[in-house]
Amino acid sequence: MAKIQAYCGLDCGECEAYIATQKNDRAGLEATAKKWAEQFGGKDISADMCICDGCPSGKRTSPAHAVTCAIRLCASAREVATCAHCPDYGCDTLNGFFTFAPVLKGKLEAIRKEIGK
C-alpha cells in the first residue's frame, strides 16, 4: 500500500480498515468491525462503518471513528498536512490523543524534525 499520512501521524496504508477498503475485502471489513467493537468497549460497529479511504483523501472516511475524530476535524479545518505542521502543535486535544495512542507522538515528532520545526 502507498503511504498516506493521516493528520495524527498514522500511516493509513497500515490501517486494517483502509487496507480492507482498498482491496474491496468485505471479510476484512467485518473482521475489523468486530475487533474495533471489542477494542472500544462493545460499541456497535458494522463493516460498512469501517470503510475508509484515509483521512486526508477527502473521500470516504470511517464513520466508526474518523467522522467524529477531533484530530481529523481540527487539522482539516486548519488545512494542515498533519498535526506536526500545525502552529499549535502540542495542544490539549493532541496531548490527550497521545495518552490513547502514544506511538503516534513519535511519528509526528519525526515529521516535525523532517520539516524543520
Set down the secondary structure blueprint.
Blueprint: H1 16-22, H2 26-39, H3 70-78, H4 92-100, H5 103-114
Explain what this protein looks like in three dimensions:
By secondary structure, this protein is mainly alpha-helical. Helices cover 44% and strands 0% of the residues. It contains five helices and no strands. The mean pLDDT is 88.
Shape: globular
> Structural class from helices and strands?
mainly alpha
Number of strands: 0
Low-confidence stretches: none
Portion of residues in helices? 40-55%
- Provide the β-strand percentage band: under 5%
The major sheet is characterized as: none
- Structural domains: how many: 1
The count of helical stretches stands at 5
End-to-end distance, in Å? 28 Å
What's the SSE pattern? HHHHH
Query: Please, what is the average pLDDT?
Result: 88
Summarize the entry for a quick read.
Helix content is 44%, strand content 0%. By secondary structure, it is mostly helical.
Defining key terms:
about 120 residues; mainly alpha; 5 helices
